[in-house]
Amino acid sequence: MENQNCNEQKLLISYMTLRKAVGILGIFLPLALLAGNYFIGNCCQVQSSISHYYYTVVGDLFVGTMCAIALFLMTYKGYNNIDHFATTLAGMFALLVAFFPTNEWSGCLCINPHRTLDNSTLRNAIHLTSASLFFITLSLISIFLFTKSTGHKTKEKKTRNKIYVACGIIMLFSIALIASVMLLPSPLKENLETYRPVFILEWVALLAFGSSWLVKGEFILKDKE
After folding, report:
1. Is residue 7 part of a domain?
2. Distance from CA of residue 31 to its chain's centroid?
3. pTM for the whole thing?
4. Segments forming the whole domain that contains residue 41
5. Into how many domains does the chain fold?
């Protein structure tokens, strides 16, 4: 019995570590891309979106991180089949984002010549759809699955639930704003591009995603014994 309890404790720790790893990757991906492009690529230009870093010297970092997030999500089983299905679905969308790059940004000044691709309407559509569904799925996981509990809810659990819901709403709101920006008339869209609205909103969504998973991994607000 003691060995069984020990094994269950180890399994719990591994799941907590997995959740924290997903959260950390999500939060620090944009910062890592910015820093890598500056220090390795000697380019201080902020790209139009996080996905456009695929065409820079840190393209492998972008693809690798998305694949790592996908792997973590697809191996995460949660508490039941619904959890496993939802995270696996999010992981599949993350892989599609990595393997079907967006079209090149015409304003990019630091393209890696080894990462050029011809523009493709189909590939770009798959990328944008997968990116949207990735965040939408993660937001629903945060709002509806992370907030579930069995038995009595501790004070910390109630606080965590509020954070999960807030993070989910922020992700949905960010995706809605990105879609609005992309649908703006060309002149207005070009004027806004100076401020990189899509990049900023994607970073906000990733911060919400990462924060949700860090809290789920009990990085903060752990139940008191």
Report:
1. no
2. 13
3. 0.91
4. 12-216
5. 1
